UniProtKB/TrEMBL annotation:
CDD domains: HTH_ARSR. Signal peptide: none annotated. It comes from the Bacteria. It comes from Streptomyces griseosporeus. This is Transcriptional regulator. SUPFAM superfamilies: Winged helix' DNA-binding domain. InterPro entries: ArsR-like_HTH, WH-like_DNA-bd_sf, WH_DNA-bd_sf.
Amino acid sequence: MASDPIPPTRAADAAIDSVSVLGEDLRRRMFTFIRRAHRAVTRDEAAASVGISRKLAAFHLDKLVDAGLLRARYETPGGVRKVGRQPKVYEPTDTQLTVSIPDRRHELLADLLLDAVLTEGPDERATQAATRTAGVRGRLLGESEREQTRPGRLGAERGLTLCERMLDEHGYEPVRETPTDIRLRNCPFHPLAAKAPDLVCGMNHAFLTGYLDGLRISGVQAVLAPRPGECCVRLTPAETDPDEVAAEDR
């Protein structure tokens, strides 16, 4: 019987929460004012920028801090020390907001392709370098996960339960069809995968294969089993013939 899936911790959830915080007009206008100031802004300045009281501004500013969009500290504007408590000032964080439904990870694909260009060997073709880079990145991710969780020996069922968190965080929308079989309902690289399926699907397959290798899961393999509207890869028991899996989906 399959173990309970790990609760999702998708980065997209945080982005959606941040966008919802910016849905309030006054909050959004203060956030824009602070971003354009290129310096730390006091509550009084933020309040004046939208014409509200200092107390109400503090409420909205703290909401932006809680959402990770602003950071706050105590500092005297201009660096001039004065007697008494320093005022609280706000400045933007480096958080970038990207919300896509369904989830897309074009930045990961771009990063892998950039690494491929920078590390391409003299005897490699571009597609070979891209596939190699994707496999290395996946393996490093799996090794890092294993080092952090120290799960011991991983069989297929428990290993796939551990995989589900990464798959969910990367936008694959994993569905556990059997205790040892995961269907990936979303392609995080769509629609780019449709433009160059051999390249992108090959990288995707290498990335997930590398992850399984790095995590050291026995009895599981990543196979190419494309289905319209879904990811081209499926995680199945290692003894499954990839051609049989593909045939089932026709």
